[in-house]
Specification:
By secondary structure, the protein is mainly α. About 60% of the residues lie in helices and about 0% in strands. It has one domain: 10k-s Protein, Hypothetical Protein A, Chain A (Orthogonal Bundle), CATH 1.10.890. The two termini are about 20 Å apart.
Length: about 120
């Protein structure tokens, strides 16, 4: 980013995203277990399951893609990144790591994205 104001705003947004008001009280806005429930609805939507809760499926995609958009500078810039790819990457990580579901959702999403799109050092 060449614009210093935009860079500063992005950093402020990122910091506020990591430390929401709920953390002052010792609780996160969305837990890993809650994210898994949303992910399951997303997977049902991907299968065109008629019992899908579309609001929850959309909430999942919105959460993980919003997180990616707010923290993109921590990851390598993959070719052809899409909302579907981000959602699928996080879903695969969640399914492979059930012992981590007790962590905050943001922490799981960040780990999933850093693992899938590691930034060169």
């Amino acid at each position: 980013m060449r614009n210093p104001v935009l860079k500063t705003l992005t950093i402020i947004l990122f910091i506020s995203f990591l430390f929401p008001l709920g953390h002052a009280q010792g609780k996160e806005l969305l837990s890993g277990n809650e994210l898994v429930q949303l992910m399951r609805e997303y997977e049902k939507a991907e299968r065109n399951d008629k019992s899908t809760d579309w609001r929850k499926a959309g909430e999942y995609v919105g959460y993980v893609t919003g997180f990616y958009d707010a923290t993109w500078f921590f990851y390598a810039d993959p070719d052809n990144i899409t909302a579907g790819r981000i959602a699928a990457v996080v879903a695969a990580f969640l399914k492979q790591n059930p012992k981590k579901w007790d962590r905050p959702a943001w922490d799981l999403v960040m780990e999933a994205l850093q693992e899938a799109f590691p930034k060169a050092k």
